[in-house]
Amino acid sequence: MSDKEILLSTDKICKEFTKSDGTKFTACKDVSLQLYRGETLGLVGESGCGKSTFVRTIMGLHPASSGKIFFKGEDITSLSGEKRRAMAKHIQMIFQDPSTAFNPKMRIRDIICEPLRNFAKVSDKEAEARAVALLEKVELAPEIALRYPHELSGGQRQRVGIARALILEPEIIICDEATSALDVSVQDSIAKLLAKIQKERGVSYIFICHDLGLVSLISHRVAVMQQGQIVEELPGDKIQEAQHPYTQKLLSSVFTVRARS
Ligand SMILES: Nc1ncnc2c1ncn2[C@@H]1O[C@H](COP(=O)(O)OP(=O)(O)OP(=O)(O)O)[C@@H](O)[C@H]1O
Question: Which intervals of the chain form a coiled coil (predicted)?
């Protein structure tokens, strides 16, 4: 990947939280990572190690305590107001349960087009046409455009979440446990859909997931986080060759769980 364009990079990002007793807690420590155009970077680590905090800091949802974030070489660490809002055109996020981010009273057509409406006036007719085109892209029937979120399955809702993330044609999509709430077969179809979209559009993903097997399958590179620090980076297909004891521990727990089930 080294000859490819670096889209996003972080330089020693730290994020500290202040606990209710006033003491400080470091959730991310000196995280320096690069994301190349068209690649999938997996981010793994035990629950609570700081994965979500890191990507939320990239999205500007938490201010970084120190360090820098660059998008195409431009320092975006401290963007605010209009400039921060404009970053949504470049970086979008998909969550574990998109339905919690959906307004239950909105039709799917309007849910998909909502990010667009933050930037431009869109008539209902145009919104419907764009939503239907994106529904096709995520392999859903056009009539879903007029339904409400509760009328869809979890897998269909996640496809709508992907369609919504695509409407602004971002260059980066951050998937935070985007497949974790789904059945294994649905997970597999969503992973295939993400790969197809990447091939067509050259989008880059940061893919956070507990399932090391799935992460290694779909990621070009995998970064391993332990207690807020990156301890190892590996090609996705070489995860079994991990050198760091923490990665080896994560791998062995995957195989212990699989052997039991
Ligand atoms: N807003 C906050 N205020 C204080 N502490 C926080 C806040 N957000 C996260 N934390 C703490 O930071 C640590 C990292 O949390 P984070 O959600 O980033 O982990 P994670 O690796 O994404 O976990 P999971 O895989 O369970 O989602 C945890 O100890 C968490 O309690």
Answer: none
**Residues within 6 Å of ligand 1 by CB:** 17, 27, 45, 47-53
ipTM score over 0.90, yes or no: yes
Burial 124-139 (b: 16+ CB within 10 A, else e): eeebbebbbebbebbe
pTM as predicted? 0.91
Q: Which of 195, 251, 189, 181 is nearest to 222 (CA)?
A: 251
Identify whether 119 is part of a domain.
no
What separation in Å is there between the alpha carbon of 28 and the centre of ligand 1?
Answer: 9
pLDDT tens-digit series, residues 135-153: 999 999 999 999 999 999 9
User: What is the total count of domains within the chain?
Assistant: 1
Which structural domain, as residue segments, surrounds residue 61? Answer: 1-78+199-261
Q: Whose CA is nearest to atom 16 of ligand 1?
A: 50
Is residue 180 domain-resident? no
**Best mutation site among 17, 18, 210 for ligand 1, i.e. most ligand atoms within 8 A of its Cβ?**
17
CATH number of the domain at 65, please.
3.40.50.300
Q: Please count the CA atoms within 13 angstroms of the CA of 43 that sit on its side-chain side.
A: 28
Give 17-45 pLDDT, tens digit per residue: 998 999 999 999 999 999 999 999 999 99
Residues 247, 16: Cα–Cα separation, whole Å? 24
Candidate of 26, 43, 52 to mutate for ligand 1, largest count of ligand atoms within 8 Å of Cβ: 52
Segment 181-230, tens digit of pLDDT: 778 888 888 889 999 999 999 999 999 988 888 899 899 999 999 999 99
Whether residue 6 is contained in a domain is answered as yes
